[in-house]
Amino acid sequence: MSVMGVAKFERFFRAAASLDVDKEDLRRYNDFVGQKVYDLLLLGQAAARFNLRDVIEVWDLPLTKGLQESMHQFEALDEAIELQPILDGVAARGPLDLALGVDTEARLPSIAGGISVALARTLTVIDPRSKNPSSQHWQRAFEVFDLLL
Hints:
The protein is built from six helices and two strands, in the order H-H-E-H-H-E-H-H. It has 149 residues and is an all-alpha fold. The radius of gyration is 15 Å and the shape is globular.
């Protein structure tokens, strides 16, 4: 990630949850968000197949109420920070058997952003006093997401 990208992510985590992150945190974050987007797409692929379609549409993705709210919060934060172009790369996915619909493809950065907001806020729930999450905090947050997404 470029220096400009790192600075934007640092600003994002400060704005979203008053957290200070470093380059190592951003590597963890990048891998995690990419995997969660891919997990959602795999579930969307299963839903599309179940409905006998060969394209994954937005409504196939299991976007919970909480994730949708986090996506809206991300969009409000993104107006000031302009992370969406960087999240295009984070939302890049592994191979799928089905194609993505145009709207689905366009929503991936917003979905990655919603996961990002939810992750930042989860870190503050895990330890409200911590301003710089430790490896253990990140691992706990990842475990919570693995249970829910």
